[in-house]
Amino acid sequence: MTQVTIPFDNVPYRFEVDDSNLIEILSPRRSQPLADLDAAIEQALGSPIGMGNLQDRIRASDRVVIVSDDITRLTPADRILPPLLKRLNDAGVPDTSICCLMALGTHRYMSGEEMIQKVGRAVHERIRVVNHEWRNPDALVDLGQSKQGTPLSVNRLVAEADVVIGLGAIVPHHIPGFSGSSKIIQPGVCGAGTTAATHLLSCRSGGDSFLGIVDNPVRRDMDDMADMVGMNIIFNVVMDSHGAVMDVFFGEKRAAFREGVKLATDIYGVPFRETPDIVVSNSCPCDLDFWQSHKSLYPAQRMVKHGGVIVICTPAPEGVSPVHTDLLEYTSWPSQDIKAGYRDGRIRNGVAAALAAAWAMVREKAEVIMFSPGIPRADKKRLGFSHAESIEEAVAEARRRQGPEARISVLTHAPDMLPVPAGISSRK
């Protein structure tokens, strides 16, 4: 027997797997962070990727909006903004013509103290720092439709700016393939209807998520929307799973993004050597509720065989979601029924509908057994998942369904992992 240890609810959780069943235990790879982040930021600003110097693209009369990801992300905006503002000032743009907009998507509004924490007190005292008021129709502008046909409702500050610069992080993501670049515009500073449409676009029929796929319909749609609002410049970082910055990428949005994706794939990519019958997928570090920990589904979905079993392990002390409380009414439906329910008006929350459809698509590839002390048995059933009192019980049930010789892989930090096939031998 092999003893497996995973971080669960801030303590080690140990369970055993028979050696004849265990394929491998996979964890994020360790990498060396930048030794001098401030020097790297200065170097990146001085050597843009895919464009000339920033000062040559800016006029003194320009209104500049810097769009930053919010407090739920670890991007060090407080370190990036001071040298970026200096270059804008050097080009003649005064602080009074610069605004930093918090790209909340459909997250809750940030408090004043959270904004100070994100951008730094000195920056907060220099320039205007505001939330994206996605609930306020007066704060949004209708710009028509993208090439994909997505209705584009975007923050008025962005639509009316002369220069838009995006700050964010590049990490594998199940909706656009990777976060970063134009994702700071959509869903970052768009209306809920735009976000719902894009999320539903990611729920392709008969396939896995877009996790780790660079070129896909969602990314192309987001890039088109960023083009429509004139967001052509980004400053993105690639971090490890602990938030340490590995490298920084500044320049034209498509070119800088492509360079960042190469490193993100290297940092988060984890080769796996065999298609497992069962994947034990742990939600650390996205443990608060299932609205976070659902990110543990998609790496497992990418690996597991069709008809296999995924075991989800998550503390989820706040349950499925303290905000999107209505989604349990339809999360057990087939994915096509969920999408149809949103189109015909039976489901009003499009973002929740899109995630529910994504969860359903996972179930349509593999059964899901959940060990979660924070999610009641009845709610697991409404998610379309089976309940287990422990990981041991979940693994035993998965083996009962798949057979005593079922092959098992374990993901210790699934949300921070991008499984990459490496000489796969698929078992029928």
Briefly, what is this?
With 428 residues, this protein is an alpha/beta fold. It has helices at residues 37-46, 54-57, 77-90, 112-119, 121-126, 156-160, 192-201, 217-229, 253-268, 290-293, 297-303, 335-343, 350-363, 377-382, 391-402; strands at residues 2-8, 11-17, 22-26, 64-69, 98-103, 128-131, 140-145, 151-155, 163-169, 172-173, 177-178, 231-239, 245-252, 269-275, 278-282, 309-313, 367-371, 386-388, 408-411, 418-426.
Task: Write a structural description.
The protein is of the alpha/beta class and 428 residues long. It has two domains: 179 residues, Alpha-Beta Complex (2-enoyl-CoA Hydratase, Chain A, domain 1), CATH 3.90.226.30; 231 residues, LarA, N-terminal domain (Rossmann fold, 3-Layer(aba) Sandwich). It is 32% helix and 26% strand. The protein contains 15 helices and 20 strands. The strands form six sheets. It has a six-stranded parallel β-sheet with strand order 3-19-15-16-17-18, sandwiched between helices. Strands 6-5-4-9-12-13 form a six-stranded mixed β-sheet, with helices on both faces. Helix 3 links the parallel strand 4 and strand 5. The longest helix has 16 residues. It is globular. The chain starts with a strand and ends with a strand. The C terminus is likely disordered.
